[in-house]
Structures are given as C-alpha cells and as structure tokens.
Amino acid sequence: xxxxxxxVDDHEVVRLGLxxxxxxxxxxxxxxxxxxxxxxVRKALLLHPDVVVMDIRLLGGSGIDACEQITERLPNTxxxxxxxxxxxxxxxxxxxxxxxxxxxxxxxxEDLIRALETVARGEAxxxxxxxxxxxxxxxxxxxxxxxEAFSELTDQEMRVLAQVAEGKTxxxxxxxxxxxxxxxxxxxxxxxxxLDLSNRTEAAAYAVKHDLKEFL
Length: 216
Fold this sequence. Notes:
Arc Repressor Mutant, subunit A; 2 domains; Rossmann fold; 56% helix; two-stranded antiparallel ribbon; alpha/beta
C-alpha cells in the first residue's frame, strides 16, 4: 500500500514537479494539491494524508500556520516543510508548529524521496545545511538559562563563588582575591541568601551545575 501525500505550494509548476517526482516512486501517491493555507488544512482534514509536503510561503498566509493546524488535529499526519528560506526563525517556528522535517528546495530528487520516507516512518529530519544552526541555538538557550542562574549576583560575588566551588576556605579566597577575610565571609552570606542555598557545599554544587566558569 502506497503512502498518501498532500502537496502544498503556491506555484503550480512546483506542485506539478513534486507530483511527478513523488509519483515516480511506487511507495508514494499524491492524493491532492493545495495552494493556500485554507485549502491545505481543508484537504488534509478531509483526506488524512500520511505526509504533507508544505511550502512556508503560501497564498493567504504561512505554511507554518497550516502545519500547526494540521498537526494539532491530525497527530498521525507528518508534515515536512520544503522551502527556499533558511532563516533561523522560520526553522524554529516550523519545528514548534509540529513539523517533523525541514528541507531546502535545493535538495536533490532522491534526497527528497528519502526525506519523505524518513518522516513517514515517524522520524524527524533536518536539512544538513541547517543542522549546525539548531545546535547553535540549543547552546545559546543553554547559556542563557545558566546565565540567569547567576543574574542576582554581582561580578565580585561570582568570583567569590568560583573560589568556593574549588573548595577554598574564606581565608584562601581572601588571599586569592586580595580581600579581607571578613569581607569574603559577608560575600558568601550574600551569595547563599540570593541563591536561597543553605551552605557552601550547596553553593559549590550550584556553581558547577550552572557552569559558572563560562561567565567569568
């Protein structure tokens, strides 16, 4: 039994090319085409295709909106975005909308068929040209989350915490940072209060967990 595909693009020549390519393979059949968001959603809900090949820029709106409406109501239908646009925000918006594939139109014919096979199996797929951007965004988010973990602390308190995380006593911290021991003691108390921690051990664990050294 062939897998049913809905082709969505606002250019007729593109839809024709995709239909011809897809139907050259026995494992797939194109059950319908659409050019607008409204028509894409309507036909998807009517036909329940296995895969929707969706352009991002459509007549009457965004393919990302159509993707979200389809995946919310048809969780078993897989949507793969096929687009000329490699902008980061479009990529992440499409993923958030439920797309399980995102490939650029420069993709080769056989690579596109493999992409359809991949998403039809329930797997996710991302154009290799965009993979690094995803990892970069994930690292950016992680750094931001860790940075927020220390947002209450002053620069000096972060330096003191870094020394505490290395197991140094107040006297040792004072020697390294050229501070009075009493001053260090006050800094440590302030750090514990701001981070809602009970003791130096918890403070050290907190610093390691949130990669404090990256922010010094």
